Amino acid sequence: MHVYHCEQSSSKTKTNKKPNRWDDPNYVQIKSNMLTFATTIDNIRDRLEEWNDVLTLLLKTPFWTLIEAYIQQRLTKVECMKSNYDIVRLIQDYDTKTRKFKFNGGDSEMKNQDVAEIFGLPNRGKKLPSTTTSTRPDLHFVKKYFMGHKKITKTSIDKCLNLALEEETEEGPMDVTRLIILQLFITNLFSNSGCTLAWTYTTIIDTFEEMGKYNWAQGVLDYMYFGLE
Q1: Which of 78, 83, 173, 174 is 20 to 30 A from 164 in CA distance terms?
Q2: Residue 123, class by beta-carbon neighbours within 10 Å (0-12 exposed, 13-18 middle, 19+ buried)?
Q3: Cα–Cα distance measured from residue 161 to residue 173, given in angstroms and rounded to the nearest whole number
Q4: Quick one: average pLDDT of 141-168?
């Protein structure tokens, strides 16, 4: 239990010190938000079913297995709800020096293949480019949807996705596909406390050929370790 003290000034005016959430040992800030992506898919499900071109394009991406689980509602909103208790237990069992989780039955290390099996991601290809520093790329897709945005945020992706879904052009389905993938990144695979996404991701999902070059299982694992440490 934390006890917070109030100091009284000479004018007898009380000033209450606001508790700092970081001082609470039970406070957890979970970066990933699967429920948000499930809600996004629910909101556009009817339009996706009507727009077969988008589903056909999503099928060609390295992320189809995971996205399909949401579309087919194998991942329900209840299953996507956060559990602080489970997360705290896992964090307490993690050793940053060995990069292993210490359980009663011994040590356990997360590997590429584990990530590949959990998320259905490819475990082959080259390493993802660095996302610690990124500048807005000179891409038609970025200019079209994110020209007025300094950063890629969940809010900006939502707005752009709604615009793309209303667009009846040849490039519309591919734009929707890219935006769904960006939403998957910011909520599931590459989440951070700032709820932003590096511009680099728009470049590496610009085409199917580009997407297929990378080891996404390794990329997600590296990002997880970066967050843990």
Answers
A1: 78
A2: middle
A3: 11
A4: 91
In this structure, how many other beta carbons lie within 10 angstroms of the beta carbon of residue 224? 16
Predicted confidence at residue 2, as pLDDT, reads 33
* Burial tier of 62 (Cβ tally within 10 Å: 0-12, 13-18, 19+): buried
**What would the pLDDT profile of 181-210 be if each residue is shown by its tens digit?**
999 999 999 988 778 899 999 999 999 999
* Cα–Cα distance, 76 to 39 (Å, whole number): 10
Sequence spans of domains, the chain:
31-228
The pLDDT-based confidence of 8 (bands split at 50, 70, 90) is very low
Look at the chain and count its residues.
229
User: Which amino acid is it at 84?
Assistant: N
Residue bearing the bigger pLDDT, 39 or 75? 39
- Whole-number Å distance between alpha carbons of 95 and 190: 21
> Has residue 92 got a pLDDT over 50?
yes
* Tokens, residue 106: 């011994």
Q: Which residues contact 175 (CB under 8 A, 6 or more apart)?
A: 141, 144, 145, 164, 167
Q: Phi, psi (5° rounding) for residue 121?
A: -100, 150
Q: What are residue 224's DSSP bridge partners?
A: none
